[in-house]
Write a structure and sequence with these properties.
This is YedE-related selenium metabolism membrane protein. By secondary structure, the chain is an all-alpha fold. Helices cover 62% and strands 2% of the residues. It is built from 15 helices and four strands.
Length: 362
Amino acid sequence: MKKNWFAGGSGIAVSGAIMAVIAVGLQYFGNPANMGLCVACFERDIAGALGLHRAEVVQYLRPEIPALLLGSFLAALCFGEFKPRAGSAPLVRFILGMCAMIGALVFLGCPWRALLRLAGGDLNAVVGLAGLIAGVGIGTVFFRRGYSLGRNTPQHTGAGYIMPALMLGILALLLVFPQVAGEGKSGVVFYSVKGPGSMHAPFLYSLGGALVVGFLAQRSRFCTMGAFRDLLMFRHFHLLLGILAFVAAAFVLNLVLGKVSIGFANQPVAHTNHLWNFLGMLTAGWAFALAGGCPGRQIFMAGEGDADAGLFVLGMIVAAAFAHNFELASSPTGIGANGDVAVYFCLAVLLCLSLIHIRKVA
Protein backbone atom coordinates (compact mmCIF):
# COMPACT_ATOMS: atom_id res chain seq x y z
CA MET A 1 0.00 0.00 0.00
CA LYS A 2 1.44 3.39 -1.02
CA LYS A 3 2.40 5.62 1.91
CA ASN A 4 0.35 8.79 2.41
CA TRP A 5 2.97 11.56 2.67
CA PHE A 6 0.40 14.10 3.82
CA ALA A 7 -0.34 12.06 6.95
CA GLY A 8 3.31 12.24 8.07
CA GLY A 9 4.79 15.00 10.20
CA SER A 10 6.07 17.06 7.27
CA GLY A 11 2.89 16.51 5.29
CA ILE A 12 0.51 17.68 7.98
CA ALA A 13 2.69 20.72 8.75
CA VAL A 14 2.77 21.72 5.07
CA SER A 15 -0.96 21.11 4.80
CA GLY A 16 -1.64 23.28 7.85
CA ALA A 17 0.47 26.11 6.45
CA ILE A 18 -1.23 25.99 3.03
CA MET A 19 -4.66 25.94 4.67
CA ALA A 20 -3.72 29.01 6.71
CA VAL A 21 -2.53 30.91 3.63
CA ILE A 22 -5.84 30.16 1.89
CA ALA A 23 -7.82 31.22 4.99
CA VAL A 24 -5.96 34.53 5.35
CA GLY A 25 -6.37 35.06 1.61
CA LEU A 26 -10.12 34.64 2.01
CA GLN A 27 -10.06 37.35 4.68
CA TYR A 28 -7.96 39.63 2.49
CA PHE A 29 -10.30 39.21 -0.48
CA GLY A 30 -13.53 39.87 1.38
CA ASN A 31 -14.44 37.43 4.16
CA PRO A 32 -14.86 39.00 7.62
CA ALA A 33 -11.67 39.74 9.55
CA ASN A 34 -10.25 36.70 11.39
CA MET A 35 -12.98 34.62 9.72
CA GLY A 36 -11.33 33.30 6.61
CA LEU A 37 -12.52 29.78 7.38
CA CYS A 38 -14.97 29.16 10.20
CA VAL A 39 -17.17 26.09 9.95
CA ALA A 40 -19.56 27.21 12.70
CA CYS A 41 -19.92 30.77 11.36
CA PHE A 42 -20.37 29.66 7.78
CA GLU A 43 -22.92 26.97 8.64
CA ARG A 44 -24.80 29.64 10.62
CA ASP A 45 -24.79 31.90 7.54
CA ILE A 46 -26.10 29.05 5.39
CA ALA A 47 -28.89 28.39 7.90
CA GLY A 48 -29.86 32.05 7.64
CA ALA A 49 -29.72 32.08 3.86
CA LEU A 50 -32.11 29.11 3.80
CA GLY A 51 -34.52 30.99 6.06
CA LEU A 52 -33.99 28.81 9.12
CA HIS A 53 -33.27 31.95 11.14
CA ARG A 54 -33.93 35.61 10.39
CA ALA A 55 -30.87 37.33 11.83
CA GLU A 56 -30.37 39.64 8.87
CA VAL A 57 -26.63 40.24 9.43
CA VAL A 58 -25.63 36.56 9.11
CA GLN A 59 -27.30 35.23 5.96
CA TYR A 60 -25.24 34.02 3.01
CA LEU A 61 -24.85 30.72 1.15
CA ARG A 62 -21.15 30.35 1.93
CA PRO A 63 -19.61 28.22 -0.85
CA GLU A 64 -16.72 27.25 1.44
CA ILE A 65 -18.76 24.66 3.36
CA PRO A 66 -19.89 22.69 0.27
CA ALA A 67 -16.40 23.00 -1.20
CA LEU A 68 -14.72 21.66 1.96
CA LEU A 69 -16.90 18.56 1.82
CA LEU A 70 -16.55 18.13 -1.93
CA GLY A 71 -12.76 18.52 -1.71
CA SER A 72 -12.67 15.72 0.85
CA PHE A 73 -15.03 13.67 -1.31
CA LEU A 74 -12.75 14.02 -4.35
CA ALA A 75 -9.66 13.11 -2.31
CA ALA A 76 -11.39 10.05 -0.88
CA LEU A 77 -12.47 8.92 -4.35
CA CYS A 78 -9.00 9.47 -5.82
CA PHE A 79 -7.22 7.47 -3.12
CA GLY A 80 -9.74 4.69 -2.55
CA GLU A 81 -10.90 5.99 0.84
CA PHE A 82 -14.54 6.65 -0.02
CA LYS A 83 -16.29 4.15 2.24
CA PRO A 84 -20.01 4.72 2.88
CA ARG A 85 -20.78 3.83 6.50
CA ALA A 86 -23.32 4.62 9.23
CA GLY A 87 -25.00 3.28 12.33
CA SER A 88 -22.81 4.58 15.18
CA ALA A 89 -25.43 6.30 17.37
CA PRO A 90 -26.62 8.65 14.60
CA LEU A 91 -29.18 10.56 16.69
CA VAL A 92 -26.64 11.07 19.46
CA ARG A 93 -24.25 12.55 16.92
CA PHE A 94 -26.96 14.92 15.72
CA ILE A 95 -27.43 16.13 19.31
CA LEU A 96 -23.65 16.45 19.75
CA GLY A 97 -23.58 18.63 16.64
CA MET A 98 -26.25 20.86 18.16
CA CYS A 99 -24.36 21.21 21.45
CA ALA A 100 -21.13 21.93 19.58
CA MET A 101 -22.73 24.72 17.54
CA ILE A 102 -24.35 26.37 20.55
CA GLY A 103 -21.03 26.40 22.40
CA ALA A 104 -19.18 27.71 19.34
CA LEU A 105 -21.67 30.54 18.79
CA VAL A 106 -21.38 31.60 22.43
CA PHE A 107 -17.62 31.92 21.83
CA LEU A 108 -18.19 33.22 18.26
CA GLY A 109 -16.25 30.73 16.20
CA CYS A 110 -15.15 27.15 15.68
CA PRO A 111 -11.60 25.95 16.55
CA TRP A 112 -10.34 27.08 13.15
CA ARG A 113 -11.60 30.58 13.79
CA ALA A 114 -10.05 30.52 17.25
CA LEU A 115 -6.69 29.83 15.58
CA LEU A 116 -7.26 32.58 13.01
CA ARG A 117 -8.32 35.00 15.74
CA LEU A 118 -5.13 34.18 17.65
CA ALA A 119 -3.05 34.69 14.49
CA GLY A 120 -4.68 38.12 14.10
CA GLY A 121 -3.77 39.14 17.65
CA ASP A 122 -7.16 38.55 19.31
CA LEU A 123 -6.21 37.45 22.83
CA ASN A 124 -9.79 36.38 23.58
CA ALA A 125 -8.91 33.38 21.43
CA VAL A 126 -6.42 32.27 24.10
CA VAL A 127 -9.30 31.99 26.56
CA GLY A 128 -11.40 30.14 24.00
CA LEU A 129 -8.60 27.70 23.17
CA ALA A 130 -8.10 27.04 26.87
CA GLY A 131 -11.79 26.16 27.05
CA LEU A 132 -11.48 23.94 23.98
CA ILE A 133 -8.57 22.02 25.53
CA ALA A 134 -10.48 21.70 28.81
CA GLY A 135 -13.52 20.32 26.98
CA VAL A 136 -11.40 17.82 25.06
CA GLY A 137 -9.73 16.93 28.37
CA ILE A 138 -13.11 16.11 29.92
CA GLY A 139 -13.84 13.91 26.92
CA THR A 140 -10.57 12.02 27.42
CA VAL A 141 -11.57 11.25 31.02
CA PHE A 142 -14.63 9.44 29.71
CA PHE A 143 -12.63 7.73 26.95
CA ARG A 144 -10.45 6.18 29.63
CA ARG A 145 -13.55 4.99 31.44
CA GLY A 146 -14.83 3.20 28.35
CA TYR A 147 -16.93 5.82 26.53
CA SER A 148 -17.83 4.72 23.00
CA LEU A 149 -20.62 5.33 20.51
CA GLY A 150 -19.96 1.93 18.95
CA ARG A 151 -18.84 1.03 15.47
CA ASN A 152 -20.53 2.06 12.27
CA THR A 153 -21.09 -0.47 9.52
CA PRO A 154 -20.67 -0.40 5.73
CA GLN A 155 -23.62 0.97 3.77
CA HIS A 156 -24.75 0.94 0.16
CA THR A 157 -22.61 3.22 -2.01
CA GLY A 158 -25.54 5.53 -2.61
CA ALA A 159 -25.69 6.45 1.08
CA GLY A 160 -22.26 8.01 0.82
CA TYR A 161 -23.39 10.32 -1.98
CA ILE A 162 -26.13 12.00 0.06
CA MET A 163 -24.02 14.70 1.75
CA PRO A 164 -22.06 15.57 -1.42
CA ALA A 165 -25.39 15.84 -3.24
CA LEU A 166 -26.75 18.18 -0.55
CA MET A 167 -23.65 20.34 -0.84
CA LEU A 168 -24.03 20.49 -4.62
CA GLY A 169 -27.62 21.58 -4.00
CA ILE A 170 -26.42 24.51 -1.87
CA LEU A 171 -24.02 25.57 -4.60
CA ALA A 172 -26.82 25.29 -7.16
CA LEU A 173 -29.04 27.57 -5.07
CA LEU A 174 -26.25 30.13 -4.89
CA LEU A 175 -25.80 30.06 -8.66
CA VAL A 176 -29.52 30.05 -9.54
CA PHE A 177 -30.41 32.75 -7.01
CA PRO A 178 -27.32 34.96 -6.73
CA GLN A 179 -27.42 38.03 -4.54
CA VAL A 180 -28.72 41.19 -6.16
CA ALA A 181 -26.83 44.28 -5.02
CA GLY A 182 -28.66 45.95 -2.14
CA GLU A 183 -31.38 43.28 -1.96
CA GLY A 184 -31.96 41.08 1.08
CA LYS A 185 -33.59 38.26 -0.83
CA SER A 186 -33.09 36.64 -4.21
CA GLY A 187 -35.76 34.11 -5.09
CA VAL A 188 -35.92 31.72 -2.14
CA VAL A 189 -32.52 32.68 -0.69
CA PHE A 190 -31.93 35.32 1.99
CA TYR A 191 -28.84 37.55 1.88
CA SER A 192 -27.31 40.01 4.33
CA VAL A 193 -26.87 43.56 3.08
CA LYS A 194 -24.82 44.54 6.14
CA GLY A 195 -22.81 42.82 8.86
CA PRO A 196 -20.59 39.72 8.58
CA GLY A 197 -22.98 37.94 6.22
CA SER A 198 -22.55 40.67 3.63
CA MET A 199 -18.77 40.24 3.60
CA HIS A 200 -17.43 37.50 1.36
CA ALA A 201 -14.56 36.74 -0.96
CA PRO A 202 -15.23 36.24 -4.70
CA PHE A 203 -17.12 33.02 -5.44
CA LEU A 204 -14.39 31.33 -7.45
CA TYR A 205 -11.70 32.02 -4.86
CA SER A 206 -13.93 30.79 -2.04
CA LEU A 207 -14.86 27.68 -3.99
CA GLY A 208 -11.37 26.86 -5.23
CA GLY A 209 -9.60 27.65 -1.98
CA ALA A 210 -11.98 25.54 0.10
CA LEU A 211 -11.75 22.65 -2.37
CA VAL A 212 -7.97 22.64 -1.84
CA VAL A 213 -8.40 22.81 1.94
CA GLY A 214 -10.87 19.92 1.88
CA PHE A 215 -8.53 17.84 -0.26
CA LEU A 216 -5.49 18.53 1.95
CA ALA A 217 -7.37 18.02 5.21
CA GLN A 218 -8.74 14.66 4.07
CA ARG A 219 -5.27 13.46 3.13
CA SER A 220 -3.53 14.82 6.26
CA ARG A 221 -6.32 14.02 8.77
CA PHE A 222 -6.08 17.62 10.01
CA CYS A 223 -8.19 18.00 13.17
CA THR A 224 -7.91 20.48 16.03
CA MET A 225 -9.80 18.29 18.50
CA GLY A 226 -7.75 15.24 17.50
CA ALA A 227 -4.51 17.15 18.02
CA PHE A 228 -5.38 18.05 21.62
CA ARG A 229 -6.92 14.63 22.35
CA ASP A 230 -3.81 12.80 21.15
CA LEU A 231 -1.60 15.14 23.16
CA LEU A 232 -3.61 14.64 26.36
CA MET A 233 -4.21 10.90 26.02
CA PHE A 234 -1.10 9.58 24.34
CA ARG A 235 1.46 12.43 24.43
CA HIS A 236 1.48 12.31 20.63
CA PHE A 237 2.44 15.59 18.93
CA HIS A 238 1.84 14.49 15.34
CA LEU A 239 -1.48 16.26 14.66
CA LEU A 240 -0.36 19.25 16.72
CA LEU A 241 2.26 20.00 14.06
CA GLY A 242 -0.52 20.92 11.67
CA ILE A 243 -2.09 23.28 14.22
CA LEU A 244 1.22 25.00 14.98
CA ALA A 245 2.01 25.39 11.29
CA PHE A 246 -1.47 26.81 10.67
CA VAL A 247 -1.12 29.48 13.37
CA ALA A 248 2.46 30.36 12.43
CA ALA A 249 1.71 30.75 8.71
CA ALA A 250 -1.45 32.77 9.38
CA PHE A 251 0.38 35.05 11.84
CA VAL A 252 3.28 35.72 9.46
CA LEU A 253 0.95 36.47 6.55
CA ASN A 254 -1.19 38.75 8.74
CA LEU A 255 1.97 40.61 9.74
CA VAL A 256 2.92 41.08 6.09
CA LEU A 257 -0.57 42.37 5.30
CA GLY A 258 -0.66 44.63 8.37
CA LYS A 259 -3.64 42.75 9.83
CA VAL A 260 -2.34 42.00 13.34
CA SER A 261 -3.92 43.90 16.24
CA ILE A 262 -2.90 42.46 19.60
CA GLY A 263 -5.30 42.82 22.52
CA PHE A 264 -8.67 41.86 23.95
CA ALA A 265 -10.81 44.88 23.12
CA ASN A 266 -12.21 45.96 19.76
CA GLN A 267 -11.47 42.69 17.98
CA PRO A 268 -13.61 41.86 14.92
CA VAL A 269 -16.76 39.82 15.63
CA ALA A 270 -15.62 38.96 19.17
CA HIS A 271 -16.58 39.75 22.75
CA THR A 272 -14.45 40.06 25.88
CA ASN A 273 -16.51 38.07 28.38
CA HIS A 274 -13.79 35.62 29.39
CA LEU A 275 -16.05 33.30 31.38
CA TRP A 276 -18.34 32.66 28.42
CA ASN A 277 -15.54 32.52 25.89
CA PHE A 278 -14.10 29.74 28.04
CA LEU A 279 -17.36 27.92 28.77
CA GLY A 280 -18.62 28.22 25.21
CA MET A 281 -15.55 26.50 23.81
CA LEU A 282 -15.42 24.01 26.68
CA THR A 283 -18.92 22.94 25.65
CA ALA A 284 -17.93 22.74 22.00
CA GLY A 285 -14.68 20.89 22.78
CA TRP A 286 -16.46 18.30 24.89
CA ALA A 287 -18.99 17.72 22.10
CA PHE A 288 -16.22 17.44 19.49
CA ALA A 289 -14.41 14.89 21.65
CA LEU A 290 -17.51 12.74 22.15
CA ALA A 291 -18.26 12.85 18.42
CA GLY A 292 -14.68 12.03 17.42
CA GLY A 293 -13.70 15.16 15.52
CA CYS A 294 -13.87 18.94 15.26
CA PRO A 295 -16.45 20.48 12.89
CA GLY A 296 -13.98 20.56 10.03
CA ARG A 297 -13.07 16.92 10.52
CA GLN A 298 -16.77 16.01 10.63
CA ILE A 299 -17.23 17.63 7.22
CA PHE A 300 -14.25 15.74 5.82
CA MET A 301 -15.49 12.42 7.22
CA ALA A 302 -18.91 13.12 5.69
CA GLY A 303 -17.11 13.61 2.37
CA GLU A 304 -15.52 10.18 2.82
CA GLY A 305 -18.99 8.64 3.11
CA ASP A 306 -19.53 8.73 6.88
CA ALA A 307 -23.27 9.39 7.26
CA ASP A 308 -22.95 9.69 11.05
CA ALA A 309 -20.55 12.61 10.57
CA GLY A 310 -23.07 14.04 8.11
CA LEU A 311 -25.70 14.03 10.86
CA PHE A 312 -23.31 15.92 13.13
CA VAL A 313 -22.96 18.56 10.39
CA LEU A 314 -26.74 18.80 9.98
CA GLY A 315 -27.12 19.07 13.76
CA MET A 316 -24.81 22.08 13.72
CA ILE A 317 -26.83 23.78 10.99
CA VAL A 318 -30.13 23.19 12.82
CA ALA A 319 -28.63 24.45 16.08
CA ALA A 320 -27.43 27.62 14.35
CA ALA A 321 -31.07 28.38 13.60
CA PHE A 322 -32.04 27.71 17.22
CA ALA A 323 -29.18 29.87 18.44
CA HIS A 324 -30.39 32.96 16.58
CA ASN A 325 -34.12 32.36 16.87
CA PHE A 326 -33.88 31.92 20.66
CA GLU A 327 -31.15 34.48 21.43
CA LEU A 328 -28.48 31.95 22.36
CA ALA A 329 -25.71 33.26 20.10
CA SER A 330 -23.28 35.94 21.18
CA SER A 331 -22.48 39.20 19.41
CA PRO A 332 -19.63 41.69 19.79
CA THR A 333 -21.60 43.26 22.66
CA GLY A 334 -21.63 40.03 24.68
CA ILE A 335 -23.48 36.74 25.01
CA GLY A 336 -27.08 36.33 23.95
CA ALA A 337 -29.94 36.80 26.39
CA ASN A 338 -30.35 33.04 26.81
CA GLY A 339 -26.82 31.96 25.97
CA ASP A 340 -25.87 31.13 29.56
CA VAL A 341 -28.89 28.87 30.07
CA ALA A 342 -28.19 27.15 26.75
CA VAL A 343 -24.58 26.40 27.73
CA TYR A 344 -25.61 24.98 31.10
CA PHE A 345 -28.23 22.82 29.39
CA CYS A 346 -25.74 21.56 26.81
CA LEU A 347 -23.21 20.73 29.54
CA ALA A 348 -25.87 18.68 31.32
CA VAL A 349 -26.72 16.87 28.06
CA LEU A 350 -23.04 16.15 27.39
CA LEU A 351 -22.56 14.75 30.89
CA CYS A 352 -25.57 12.46 30.46
CA LEU A 353 -24.40 11.24 27.06
CA SER A 354 -20.89 10.67 28.39
CA LEU A 355 -22.15 8.54 31.28
CA ILE A 356 -24.76 6.63 29.28
CA HIS A 357 -22.24 5.52 26.66
CA ILE A 358 -19.60 4.12 28.99
CA ARG A 359 -19.24 0.51 27.95
CA LYS A 360 -18.04 -1.86 30.62
CA VAL A 361 -15.49 -4.43 29.53
CA ALA A 362 -16.58 -7.96 30.42
